Write the structure tokens for this entry.
Amino acid sequence: MIAKVIVDIPASNVNKTFDYLIPKTLEASAQPGMRVAVPFGPRKLQGFILSITKDATVSKLKRLQELLDPVPVLTSELLSLGQWLSEETLCFLITAFQAMIPSALKATYKKEFALSQEQHLSSLPSQVMRWFNHRTHIPYDEIVTTEPELLPVFQKLVTAGTLEVIYKMNDKVTKKKIKVVYPNQSVGALQTLLAALPPQALKQKEVLHYVMNEREGVVQSDLLTMFDASRSTVTALEKKGAVVVIDQELYRDPFAGREFKKTTPLTLTAQQEESMRPMVAAVEEERHETFLLHGVTGSGKTEVYLQTIEAVLQKGKEAIVLVPEISLTPQMVLRFKGRFGSRVAVMHSGLSAGEKYDEWRKIQRKEVSVVVGARSAVFAPFENLGLIIIDEEHESSYKQEENPRYHARDVAIHRGLMNHCPVILGSATPSLETYARAQKGVYTLCELLERVNSRELPAVEIVDMREELRNGNRSMFSEDLFAKLQDRLQKGEQSVLFLNRRGYSSFILCRDCGYVGECPHCDISLTYHKKHHTLRCHYCGYAEEMPTNCPSCESSYIRFFGTGTQKVEEELAKLLPEARVIRMDVDTTSRKGSHEKLLSQFGEGKADILLGTQMIAKGLDFPKVTLVGVLAADTMLHLPDFRASEKTFQLLTQVSGRAGRHELEGEVVIQSYTVGHYSIELASKHDYHTFYKEEMAVRQSHRYPPYYYLTLLSFSHPDVLKVVDASEKCAGYLRERLSERTLILGPVVSPIARIKDRYRYQVMIKYKNEPALSRIIQELLQHFQPLMDKEGLHISVDMNAQQMM
DNA sequence: AGCACGCCGACT
DNA sequence: GTCGGCGTGCTC
């Protein structure tokens, strides 16, 4: 039998299957979707079996070396989904498959030198022999980093046959194994065996006496500490056939030992009930349908999800819930764990690679029926999928900005289609694309326009900060906001202050000459890092000491413009010294679990003001919060992005929704320098529908999505002339082949003109109907392949660009 | 990706 | 005359 294998190299010339002979011994167990180790040239690589056939396309076959999984890691559905994904996003097959499995299953490769058979150390030159002191294998990398001039010597010894090169392949993360001791015979038989033990075998007696009643097994290390015994005691018992020791895979449960308060379904409002009915119907009928659940903040979308999932579980099926990374908070997880207990797996970036793997294994082994996770959880290997939910559907984090450049929403809908199951997109501020589709009837629109507690949405006041400045207020708090903060402080109520991080990033600036610290390799300003007192580049990792004097004019008035939040915190301390402030930003939440800790402190009333960035905009739900302040609403409005208005509207709406969710009434103050702007104006009125109409008109007149599709080609090269030349040629190539109604813009320089010493240009394609676009771009890539290989030109394609960078 | 094979300049 | 530069093409 022949296995068609796709190997672990993302390159166009190996983006196809290779045939391998399946050894007789593995024939029974080899299955499509398994990872395998295969010889590839002189190396040993990981690969995936795509299919198994009788005959091969080539004659000289190698045999596959090893099966790396007892059961396939890719289900047959995922195998075909990968195919689809690679066509849809124009990525290599291997890249699509790698995105579907936990990174712990990725292979790492190592090259080593070892002495050949029948060779003796003494035949080595002394400077090489030194390396073989106390070991038989010398890692290639070690020589490269410490004594690269010795490499040719090693190489020569290889050609001479004295040394050989060994290619090693390992899993990235070793599965945590634990030894468990089980009784190996009936209690009666063991009783006899126990009696027959020699009298001096005290430890064995004790241990066996204990183990024989533990049919569930005992962890060996526990057993040994319990009786102060050693490994040999257990081995002796094993030899006598009394017990058996089994290596068992151990789950690292990040929620181990945590109690989840069981919650029961809440009574639904009439609106919730009405929205849910068609969703449950689709679940019952196992029919694909995409729903847009448009519910204002606090309208109880989550409860609708939970009860729809309940219907899925009733049917014995499984559900995927996608949540944006940033709102995958413990609060959120608790709601799901509280309702479905141990039937839930949770996948988010806060988990270690090992923990992620363990959660994934729970899905694979059918130990859970619900997964709550960020973007990549859309690939959960369920085989009986009954529902996919995407919460906060509009969030940009659902788009992966590296290969494969997929949007989780598209993948979800495709999986829904394949599995005959409904997909629910939920949001208070749906993306224009989604809402437009709902309007057209492509998706079923369900609206929840009332909050569950019938509370009014909070009153929102917009403050013109230019006015404040004219009146001599140079602080970052308007008089109004400041007065309200004081008021809450007096009443013992809580406030949330929101600062948009962008535009406030922590660059350094010379106040004399205007010098801004920039990365020498990337056209981007350096970010100040407090912990190392260095300036670092976000893109390439370049770091330098924080200068004491301006590198350009020697002035000592060089200072960094603090992390925004830090600065606000300082000012708060000056103006409201009695206020207890909790600051949440990348600096204070980088440690594991600190995010959670800070929030629970705030929830317990240990602070009066929560000050933070994006990360506090979502999902927070604290009864005592009655004031929300947005310090600068328009910092992201001026970004070079046609979605800037939409993003501003979404953010302001989300933030406003944090106030007055319970008994106490809430109030919101938005400070802005662009008060007339419709996105700010309409967010303050909680008026999504008018915003939708206005923004749609703008999109139509500028020919942007959802009226046009948008594909972005990016080019990069160390030589600016080369990249301009290449991108012009590509634009020309496209102009010749695409229809006249399609717009091809550029090439223009990218918003970030240079990263890691490579100059960047881009070409934007706006189109309504271009059925052959994928094929044409594929041909373009083929056509320019020689240029990419020879000159080191990089071309990246984003078939559904969300960001212009 | 990594490696071997292959064709043109400065060296024992 | 050879060692070695990296351009080209292949890996089942």
The first strand of chain A starts at residue 2 and ends at 7.
